[in-house]
Amino acid sequence: MAPIFAQVVVLSAMLGLLTACNDVQTRPQINIEGKTMGTFYSVKISGEIAQSPQQLQQEVDALLEQANDDISTYRKTSVLSRFNQYRGTQPQPIPQGMADIILQAQRIGRDTQGAMNITVGPLVNLWGFGPEKQPINIPSQAQIDGALKQVGLQHLKLISDNHGEWLQKDLPDLYVDLSTMGEGYGVDQLVNLMMRKGITNYLVSVGGAVSTRGVNGQGQPWRVAIQQPTDKENAVQALVDLQGYSISTSGSYRNYFELKGQRYSHVLDPVTGRPINHKLVSATVIATSALEADGWDTGLMVLGTEKALKLAEEKGLAVYLITKTDKGFSAVMTPQFKAFLLPNQH
Ligand code: FAD
């Protein structure tokens, strides 16, 4: 068993490279970077700000720390971990932000007919992609069937009343995993911070989720790269200008383990209970919020190229799919995605 845990950095790793260019710097650019959610974040701002970068970084870190305290399954004391550890079925109080994630997850879960499924936690842990260790052997069908009995969005209820937001499960062993949307949530938190501060020229990213607005230090629109689905970190597949929107990519080529020559992706099919095993290797979505983009990309990854494209067209989503072929890779996109491509990319 050779566990491989590179990040699905897809977009964010490319940003420094692509925003540097040869152009002359026309305005100051502030770059803040750090670690969160088992990956990296980046905040780039062009123009003056009313505080020092160090002060801003403290605020950024505090926001992302709060997100970890709320929704990390890697922290035993987070609100989400305590909900997962709770063995009763009474509604439990949850913060507003977590309720927002779950509401969006339920919508996308319905639209993908359960392909995007935040109750997939028992399977994630069984296959060793969660906070627990990698499996030494591939799980047996009996183990998979056992875990599948604990999976199902219908077992999770979000309640909103005068006293706040509540989450209720009707299966004591239900295990909610918000990892798939956490990066997008983090990006939306950073976007809100920029808005509160009146900052209008920024690029913020957490892992493979990115949002941009305005222009960079050269006075040019921020450019974001979709990386080719190879192990080479800097191979560019396409370049987009987000125009104030957010982008997120889910891929099966960076986070996986290998056993006897077979790759096992961290994206799991909630129907079979197994890692996806088709030719779609990456799904990129552009949406008004990073949370939405981050939820859809995983759902589309599970569905595979044909069903994903059909659903994206039906829903009018901006989607870019890369599929492995005998000769290499082929890419398809919806017209809505095409509108974000930089010139000469069509
Ligand atoms: P995505 O494709 O967006 O999501 C894949 C992940 O979603 C899988 O790894 C699995 O957890 C889950 N998933 C799989 N199949 C499905 C499905 N069908 N439907 C819904 N979800 C599915 N990692 C660490 O190693 N250490 C940490 O300390 C750590 N802390 C974290 C804290 C937070 C708040 C969050 C959100 C994540 C954290 N992670 C941590 C997880 C790590 O960053 C994940 O690899 C990442 O969140 C997965 O996102 P992705 O973009 O790589 O893949």
Question: What does this entry show, briefly?
Answer:
This protein has a single domain, classed as T-fold (Roll). It is built from ten helices and 18 strands. The protein has helices at 15-20, 53-71, 79-85, 96-111, 121-126, 141-148, 179-196, 290-303, 305-315, 335-338, and strands spanning 2-5, 29-36, 39-46, 92-94, 156-161, 164-169, 202-206, 209-213, 224-227, 236-240, 246-251, 255-259, 262-265, 268-269, 274-275, 280-287, 318-325, 328-333.
**How far apart, in Å, are the first and last alpha carbons?**
41 Å
Question: From N to C, what is the helix and strand string?
Answer: EHEEHHEHHHEEHEEEEEEEEEEHHEEH
Bound small-molecule species: flavin-adenine dinucleotide
Spatial order of the strands forming the largest sheet: 2-3-7-8-11-16-17-18
CATH superfamily: ApbE-like domains
Q: Which fold name fills CATH's third level, the topology?
A: T-fold
The CATH class turns out to be Alpha Beta
The pLDDT mean sits at 89
Mind describing the biggest β-sheet? 8 strands, antiparallel
Put simply, the count of helices is 10
Q: How many separate structural domains? A: 1
